[in-house]
Amino acid sequence: MSDPTGGAKSADRFLIGIVLGMLLLVGVAFAVVLWRPQPAYQADGTPESAVHNYLLALRQQDDARAYRYLSPTLAGYPRTVEAFAADVRNEIWDLRSDRSSVALAVVETQRVGEEAWVTVEETWFDSDGLFARGASSNTFDLRLRQSDAVWLIVEAGRYWALCWERAGGC
């Protein structure tokens, strides 16, 4: 005659193993997120670093730092950091929406004398549920001009207020 509780004990151990395994996976996921390196500013001096720092400052809402990368030769150059911040808030509405779901990376630079064109890849990550994940990418360019060994942005395809290029500004 067999023990009637033997099967139940085996099932309980199996269930406990599954629960412990899930807890371990959740712990590992939290550790990966917490130990993930935070984005950092780069040393200035190249067109790539200027673009990286500008975009990072915008994402971190460091308006004073982002403003430093705008060329004062722009026809609609905002005269103060406060005006710049207002332009960003009003004109670049998609910039600060869910910053965690977009990644920006410099992919190419072309330099001609004191001008440079930097191509940035923007990748949007979306999730339609627990296991449905997707990504879409596009690229855009920023044009920079060197002034006294400093690279400043004079035009951009994204993360930019077009009114900065018009006399009178925003």
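the 2nd protein, sequnce then structure:
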Amino acid sequence: INKRMRDLLVPFRNRDVLLPAFNGSASIKSVLPALVPGMNYTDLEIGEGGAASLAYEKLLDPKVTKVEKDKIRKDLLTYCGQDTMAMVKLVEVLRKKVQD
């Protein structure tokens, strides 16, 4: 499986795929809405990796209540689900571009 893994940053960082809408960034937060209209991170409680890391750290804090931890877990799962679906959609778009 590891041999078949590909980093989806590479075609954007190498500028193999480049659109003005990327605003010079290869970040998924820039690339995704340009290639998959309507799909972005703006409506999520946790919308980027740094915030996800901080939220995960908060889960480890014994002072945080169960209710707060449950919400953090839910928000992290939503964020991770969005990241996963974003990768699936980007692969679909890239495959289509190669086939065209």
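The mean pLDDT is 94. DSSP finds four helices and no strands in the chain.
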